[in-house]
Amino acid sequence: MATxxxxxxxxxxxxxxxxxxxxxxxxxxxxxxxxxxxxxQAMSPPFLYVEAGKPLHPVHVDWKERTWFTGGLFSxxxxxxxxxxxxxxxxxxxxxxxxxxxxxGLGWRNLLATVGATVVMAVALGPAFGSLHAADGSxxxxxxxxxxxxxxxxxPAALRPGRSPGAAVVESLAVGSLVTGAAVVFVGGxxxxxxxxxxxxxxxxxxxxxMTVSITLAQVVTAVLAAYxxxxxxxxxxxxxxxxxxxxxxxxLEVTLIGNIALIRQLGWINTMPALILxxxxxxxxxxxxxxxxxxxxxEINDATRLDGYGxxxxxxxxxxxxxxxxxxxxxxxxxxxxxxxxxxxxSVVSDDRYNTxxxxxxxxxxxxxxxxxxxxxxxxxxxxxVLILLIAFQRQIIRGLTAGAVK
Length: 408
What we know:
This protein is mainly alpha-helical. It has helices at about 1-45, 45-50, 75-95, 100-105, 110-135, 140-160, 165-190, 190-200, 200-230, 240-245, 255-265, 275, 285-295, 300-305, 310-325, 325-340, 345-350, 360-370, 375-385, 385-395, 395-405.
């Protein structure tokens, strides 16, 4: 009787876990379906795509006559490093690392699997790219063969104590197929090169990158210093000044736009990087957010550090900032996204196309390529890559920052 009840309990848990995974898979499909549709639209010429009845597959795709190792040294190195990073991240997220590997940052099994999978994929996709360009009808088999080879390379890293061989094979197939399929689409398609060259995304992305990094660093530094002052220091009219500081959040950019543009013109900063950066070197929202994190530090820590002879700067750098790192990381992502997506202000202080930022450059290509709308969609997807990398890199800090204080 007890054995049968235990068996029922195991069966119920198995069904429950399977149901949870099924729900997660369905939610992932719902979330990723618009992205898949966007990729299909980017790779398909608009008129042919509409005439075909908007199918759920690319129509009349132009494929490059290339292998993984053609296209210039920079392109080869860039795509190889990106593949290594993607395999490493997905290996860690889906396959899993043991505790020792997590502490040292990379286990030998995962290192071998990551490097091996990248090399195998680079070699195996050569015939697939050639078949796609020649349209000989055998491309699907070459791609499936590359997926199987890459997945087989990942199996040894997936075999961990306590994990069944079947689960390891399934996880390896999922990772290998996903990365190999993405490599075929984003390396073999001509539209991505067309979007990069016709939209002149390189210089615009470089300017946006410089602007974003500068604004983010400036906002984080000024927000940390101001938040520390409002949280730990005593000075006259502290609450009044903080209230006035927060009142600036009620003023949108459009309210001060004309005055700021007039000031930039008087300074002679039109079409310059200082005009894009300096007006955004401080953030009231960042100050408020980090101040709330500082207020969560127990007063006993501050008192103990004072008794040990620590000054304000030592306490800030050695205790306050490390203890509120998730909050600061969350604001860093928020600040970077806000700076990267700026459109109104760059459009107001830039009058020469040579100084366009990325978002303004995207607007110009959309207006000039109505007949080739898929190129505009591809350019927008290329512009989203840095944001995706940022979110992946800071995902843990974002989750910790959002959940800070949720558990006492």
